[in-house]
Amino acid sequence: xxxxxxxxxxxxxxxxxxxxxxxxxxxxxxxxxxxxxxxxxxxxxxxxxxxxxxxxxxxxxxxxxxxxxxxxxxxxxxxxxxxxxxxxxxxxxxxxxxxxxxxxxxxxxxxxxxxxxxxxxxxxxxxxxxxxxxxxxxxxxxxxxxxxxxxxxxxxxxxxxxxxxxxxxxxxxxxxxxxxxxxxxxxxxxxxxxxxxxxxxxxxxxxxxxxxxxxxxxxxxxxxxxxxxxxxxxxxxxxxxxxxxxxxxxxxxxxxxxxxxxxxxxxxxxxxxxxxxxxxxxxxxxxxxxxxxxxxxxxxxxxxxxxxxxxxxxxxxxxxxxxxxxxxxxxxxxxxxxxxxxxxxxxxxxxxxxxxxxxxxxxxxxxxxxxxxxxxxxxxxxxxxxxxxxxxxxxxxxxxxxxxxxxxxxxxxxxxxxxxxxxxxxxxxxxxxxxxxxxxxxxxxxxxxxxxxxxxxxxxxxxxxxxxxxxxxxxxxxxxxxxxxxxxxxxxxxxxxxxxxxxxxxxxxxxxxxxxxxxxxxxxxxxxxxxxxxxxxxxxxxxxxxxxxxxxxxxxxxxxxxxxxxxxxxxxxxxxxxxxxxxxxxxxxxxxxxxxxxxxxxxxxxxxxxxxxxxxxxxxxxxxxxxxxxxxxxxxxxxxxxxxxxxxxxxxxxxxxxxxxxxxxxxxxxxxxxxxxxxxxxxxxxxxxxxxxxxxxxxxxxxxxxxxxxxxxxxxxxxxxxxxxxxxxxxxxxxxxxxxxxxxxxxxxxxxxxxxxxxxxxxxxxxxxxxxxxxxxxxxxxxxxxxxxxxxxxxxxxxxxx
Length: 802
Hints:
The protein is mainly beta. It is built from eight helices and 45 strands. Strands 2, 3, 4, 9, 10, 13 and 14 form a seven-stranded mixed β-sheet that branches. Strands 32, 35, 36, 37, 39, 40 and 43 form a seven-stranded mixed β-sheet that branches. Strand 18 and strand 19 form a beta hairpin. Helix 5 (511-524) packs across helix 6 (551-563) and helix 7 runs parallel beside helix 8. The N and C termini lie far apart (66 Å).
């Protein structure tokens, strides 16, 4: 099993370890007399190597078996950087007295000889030349990055640094490691806690617990008769769950026809068995991963593939992709007919999305492809499928991806998207389409367009978006001429307040970005009186030099609005403390108010800064703010490493209006809808609920001082109308969410993975009784977008009358 291994760098190697049955040493000064790392090899699969995989060998010179339960082998680069971390391979079983224990690590694309059957298989791609391997009591990653710190960690049983490794035992690291040489202990397994003295370089000699040596059994380097199929078929490999029963095992002579080839990125090819079994759960297609080597096969080739079955997890929370790695491929014939594609349409896709595991992993659950959509897609992983005349629900991205739905009647929006309306009602027909044809430009489509005709390809899986169709034949895009909306202008007695996330805008951005965003304000939003902006950065953006001001950024933006036909806006903001508000490192992101001084006035009250909390002040004439502009309780832990709300007091026709600009914590860290943990955890929600409670408390303080106070709370709340965040924000009926006042098929401002959904909101206090609210769709549904968010606007009659 591999988790999130980089597929652009393939450093392969091997490590051997000898274990101790005695108490763990407190430091390297107490060498083990029984348990040590006996051999380390990081050159497996590299150019010039004979062996196909890296390995770590453990040995036990003691008189009793050494229990490895709960232990791990861990690897650190030879010259660790600040971002380096120890990579962990968990161990099981034990090492017999006088025996060996073999930990296979990552495979490369070179070599011809397989390791003997490993006692455990890890995923670590080790350097052939330099690195550190530790035998650790426990599976929690080490944190030490110096020899002295690691010596002080009592969990370290033994440690080997080789090449130029910074972390090593004794006077220096073991020397001589390369693509053709490991570093190994003498036959005596002596351990003096001096790597340079205890280990020497020689040809690698991996030995497993059974005493077998490399090349001694049938494996990827020994495929048997290359012209006769073996006993294992693709459907045997795929099995009836998400994890192959052959995971980590060698297979020989797996027959199939090449249905698609990928020559960029994660290279390889798909094969499909032409003699399927009768079980709909067991897929007939599988990906053959060739790594950095271009596949030497063509579509239509009949092949036999030998290699190692592997479940590749793009990340820790996603589902896996079943693959054959380190392949040896024999082409039997070419030009063969391909298996007929499975038709994916509304009749084929189940209404339910995914089974529940109570928040746990669904990996081991038997597939039910007739009941759950994700089970159907999993059963088709690697298989040829075909879709036809599918509506686009997510515009073409910069990565040449487009989202479509095979269920056109499923939760359609007014403009052609697919609405995401609850946690329990997932849109099962969404699927991402990509193209394997690099010779043709990818179609540029917007939401509501149609990918007409038939699109054929194979089902794959990725960390972003989940199941996708890798197209070998792409349909033709039909343009349905989606247009950007223009909202009406406010009337003389209406105060127009808008929110717009301008996506990390700073003074170093291209003028075209300023111009497009400015047109959105001046034309599409019809020049609101107040615009609450999210994601304004400091003047030099992602440069961490202490700059916190945004004057140059806002000058360029307001100049561009004037050039687009809008008014000359003034602005107010509270500059954050350097590096304290999250967002892009160095960017010092903040909320900003723009306002048209010819229509509305800003009430300035001195004293507001990054650390001062704004408060409601009761007066004989109503409520005012202690500072304006100000921030809501900036010392609260709810705002740690996050944007603080901006509060301002405005006057329109002589009457006060309080505006709160928000940008709540992002949804980063939440488990994906399509992931292996169901139902997915929404860990980021905790902070947003805390933030919503802080804003709710402040709004209630305004209403306690004046129950008729006019409060507009708005911004990118990074959560849905049906979320606990919104419940916390509106608690006690302090605020009314306006998104739910729209028809259901218009309640969205953002499109993600083919789902039209709402992250941006405007809410008003009960004192605002008459309003006209609009989400202005100018970005999220379009391939060409200035921001990934659509702005929103509310026009209110401050005196409550029309």
